[in-house]
DNA sequence: AAATTATGCAACCGCGCGTGC
DNA sequence: GGCACGCGCGGTTGCATAATT
């Protein structure tokens, strides 16, 4: 966590502050105020640059600094403020007494950003993400939630639990298929670019013939017998997007009869209002951006990179979807 | 138990803005 | 107007620690 102390070319110390230095700085500022930061280190007898002193004071030594975990209220406030202000950390910090911009920035980058991503929201726009990565994220969420649900199911009822897992996997696969299919014609990433409709054969091949009747319950959690707290914790990520999203009957697939067939076949899983809306794939996001993006997990970069290099077949997609379904299971704690 | 990888966060860097000369 | 300076901000780095393999 600490850097090895070092000196720059002017001989001034860099790196972590020692307790002695902290004391000198605190004593000096409490007695004299900081005044000119540039002049301060000399006056205080510190072998540091003024900037280093200022940072140490504002981010760590200031007496009004609140340390420790961010409360739920603070967390919500940060998210809301970030939605309005963007990465204006100082502006955000001004609304959270005792918190520094640096602390908030770190908290955002290490926790909140991930949280929003997991919720399928773009951390920059705070809107539903509309790319395939988001889709995979949703897929993993669904599978993870299903596994958690299973763990809270009566252990005597293993068959029930296994069926639930299986159904959730099926739904996740269906979602992934549908979302991949609904990308616009102009999207170079569209894996179904050469197809006019989602082939029944592929749907059947990927999904098999499992009964999806439990999936409605999986989403609303009303009949599964676990506590409301668990529901809140594990299903909050399935909230419907706040803005109208492109469903299968929008975009390039307007009036797509295949979606209606799917609705009939699976009890209207694609259009029932109590199920989460599908997020649409983003045509503006290039393959290169995705592959280079730090948001990508390594495994997915490779998979997606491979994907872009070849014309995907239906068999390929079946394998792809199966692989990621399995990965999602294995990542659940 | 050791090696490897991921995570969290303090501290640094560089840019841009405001101010004074 | 142009320059120098001081400061604040956002982005990034580096490393200790935790988690995983």
State the shape: elongated
How much beta, percentage-wise? under 5%
What is the count of DSSP helices, taking H or I runs of 4+ residues?
15
**What's the helical proportion of residues?**
40-55%
Strand order of the largest sheet: 1-2
Strand count, sense and barrel status of the largest sheet are: 2 strands, antiparallel
By DSSP, the count of extended strands is 2
H-E order: EEHHHHHHHHHHHHHHH
Are there runs of 5+ residues with pLDDT below 50, and where?
A: 1-5, 152-158, 180-195, 201-333
Radius of gyration: 26 Å
Distance between the termini: 26 Å
Sheet/helix structural class: mainly alpha
Rounded mean pLDDT score: 56
What's the short story on this structure?
With 333 residues, the protein is mainly alpha-helical. Helix content is 54%, strand content 1%. Strands 1-2 form a two-stranded antiparallel ribbon.
Describe the structure.
This protein is mainly α. It has 15 helices and two strands. The chain has helices at 19-32, 40-44, 50-61, 72-85, 89-93, 101-118, 132-152, 158-181, 200-207, 215-220, 228-235, 257-265, 287-292, 298-309, 314-331; strands at residues 6-7, 13-14. Residues 1-5, 152-158, 180-195 and 201-333 have low confidence and may be disordered. It binds a DNA duplex (21 and 21 nucleotides) through residues 1-4, 14-17, 36-38, 50-52, 54-56, 58-60, 87-90, 101-103, 105-107, 109-111.
Provide key terms for this protein.
mainly alpha; about 0% strand; disordered N terminus; about 55% helix; about 325 residues; elongated; DNA-binding
